[in-house]
Amino acid sequence: MPELDYELEALLDLDGFEFRFAQGYRVKLQAQRIEATAGRPHGIKYSLTLHDPQGERIYGLDNAHGIGRHAVRYDHRHVYGRRKVVPYVYSGPAKLLEDFYREVERILLERGVR
C-alpha cells in the first residue's frame, strides 16, 4: 500500500476554499487529483488566486493551461501588476501554498490591506 502524502491531502482538502480578507479582497483555492501527464507530472491540477474587491484576479499560481511556444510546461504564475505569465517551479504542495501566501501577503501589504 502506498504511503499517504499528507501535504498533498491537505492541499486537496482545500479545494473550493474561499477566504475573504479586509476591504473585499479574497483568495480562492482549487486543487484536484488528476492522471499524471507530461505537463502535470505531479498528478494534480491546481489554481490558487487572489482577487481584488471587484473580483478581478490580481495574482495566481496554477497549471490550468500550458505555457510557452509548445505548451509543455503547465505550472506558472500570473504576475501581479502585469498581464505576464511566467513559469513556476512546482516542488510540492506545502511549498506551493507557502509561495502563494507569501506573495498574497506582500501584495496586500503593498495595497494597504491589514
Explain what this protein looks like in three dimensions.
The protein has a six-stranded antiparallel sheet with strand order 1-2-3-4-5-6. It is of the alpha+beta class. 23% of the residues lie in helices and 27% in strands. The protein has one domain. The protein starts with 5 loop residues before the first helix and ends with a helix. It has helices at 6-13, 93-110, and strands at 18-20, 26-33, 44-51, 57-62, 76-78, 85-87. The relative contact order is 0.17.
* Gap between N and C termini: 46 Å
Largest sheet: 6 strands, antiparallel
Poorly predicted residue ranges: none
Strand content: 25-35%
Brief summary:
With about 110 residues, this protein is of the alpha+beta class.
List the helices and strands and how they pair.
Elements: H1 6-13, E1 18-20, E2 26-33, E3 44-51, E4 57-62, E5 76-78, E6 85-87, H2 93-110
Antiparallel strand pairs: 1-2, 2-3, 3-4, 4-5, 5-6
